[in-house]
UniProtKB/TrEMBL annotation:
Chain segments annotated as transmembrane: none
Cross-referenced InterPro entries: Glyco_trans_2-like, Nucleotide-diphossugar_trans
Signal peptide (UniProt feature, chain positions): none
Residue ranges of domain Glycosyltransferase 2-like in the record: 9-115
Protein name (database record): Glycosyltransferase family 2 protein
Protein species of origin: Levilactobacillus fujinensis
Amino acid sequence: MKSIENVAILMSTFNGADFIEQQIESICEQSYEGWTLYIRDDGSTDETLNIIRKFMKNDHRIVLYEEEKPVNLGPAESFMTMLSRIDANYYLFSDQDDFWLSDKVEKTLLVMKRLNQHEPNLVHTNLSLTDRELEVSAPSFSKTAFDDVQSILLANDITGCTVMINRKLRDLVKYQISIPCMHDMWLGLIAAQFGNVDYIKASTMLYRQHGNNVVGSTTNKMAKIKGFNSISEKNRLMTTVLTARELLKKYGNYFSIEERKTLITLSQLGKVSLFKSLWRIKKNRIYKHSFLATTSFILKIMLNYSSLKSSI
């Protein structure tokens, strides 16, 4: 690429010694070279920091974001903290245990720069699922993306480690450190409402699946069905409720009347009766992108509603 932009890659680490070396190496091998990798460690007790410092000796573009009194923040708040304090034109987010294809930054930046940079923009990409040894199990995670506000609230399909945002979006969320969901979901919602979300159908990275993933993915349909009444599904519903509430609180006046009805309906799940919630969902046409997906969503609400009510 002819021009060099100021691109910040943000990585939050926690006991990532098993895989972080491969991930950093894949970033160092990027075809686009105008990046700086900022790493904030979230309290590792293994060799993670020693591995990072070894790379820092050989590449000045790798910076350890050190704090006087380090605190374990968890991934979402850790990423949002870095985002609030680091200045760049564009930002990417990196997990500690994946592997980036060599043109990931270049390909994503090319699509990003086609968008209006006076608006808050987010670009995310497809990915390939692998086992812990990076053997590919699913070359394509998803060829389609549903990136309107309602779709993201019901089932976020934006994977943080594939994301690039521009400075305009960063400035909108700069002071929002504590958020009710993962950073990728929150950034996607803000970009969808106030700017643009674009999706690259080609995979740009290998997404490693292993027992220690903070957030994992699966393409196994039977596993998804069995998980309808799982703790993780209850947590997802709770995230939808709390995030809808936060959107109303911070940006309610920027949504249309119909959009606010959707947010209110979702924010009050668990506060009103199950029958009333289901009636509002139907009345306000809160559907997912297919009949099967909508049916699954309704079933999950019905199965988990008592738990939702007790948690609100």
